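Input/output pair, single chain:
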Amino acid sequence: MYGRCFAMAFLVAMVAVAQAAEPNDNPTYDDPFAASADGDFAIQGEYVGDLDTGFGSLKTGARVIALGKGKFHTVLYLGGLPGDGWNKEIYEGDGELKDGAAVFQQPQGSGRIENGTLTMTSSDGDAVGKLSRTERKSSTLGQKPPAGAVVLFDGKNTDAWENSRMTADGLLIPAATSKQKFGSCTLHLEFRTPFMPVARGQGRGNSGCYLQGRYEVQILDSFGLAGKDNECGGIYSVKDPAVNMCYPPLTWQTYDIDYTAAEFDSAGQKQKNARMTVRHNGVVVHDNVELPKSTTAAPVGEGPEKGPIYLQDHGNPVRFRNVWLVER
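Output:
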């Protein structure tokens, strides 16, 4: 309803952008310093501010997604960013670099980014507001393990994992399977997806966290997508997240998962399904969801035995840190 009142697409210009990277069919950056060589990285991200809707000022968020080779997709969220006021109404647009600027244009209006500020203009040329680039942080980022927690990874070594590796700067590299096995528990982990602007779908920052090696919470660079079960925050092949809380690539994100194991009788017959509550970047995206089956590609089948935490390798440089667990 607000689309007639203010700009829905953007003319984007970047001042003092970094020098473009060497041509690459599928560039992959696993840290922000390396990604800064790609000028598109500085444009992509989240923006938030107030717009004049014609009915008063309305908080509005935007996500600008880099698609590689100077192309972008933009999603505008009325009410604020997902998890911060969004009222479920969105508008989308596409654009590309032209003469050093990334141009988005629709009949409803235009916009312009300079020095981290997106200035919105209506179709009749009136300024309707500004959105500023923001870098959100999860409310549980850096959370310390409580007394009695099992620390699985703290950046010092990979002793808690089978055949695993870590980077020189102390990040866990998947695949990684915990040596210890667990039942019901609360798990905290922090992860970072790479910047892979040309990649699409399941080829873009793919990994996963499996509880007991059986039930996967998907990890993927699905920044700005709809939020499906095979995207970040989804319980793979079981349920979509309530909201897509995926932050931009190369931003540290958190999962906090309360997991209740399935119950079996003495004959090994399942009596109750497993359940989980998932907080993605501090926001509940699954509330006590029943898990009727092990998820796709689970390395461990359903059963009464305890199982490991498994962090999947899907060929992309996803990284982990601050992984700990409290048994229940």
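The chain has a mean pLDDT of 89. Helices lie at 32-35, 39-43.
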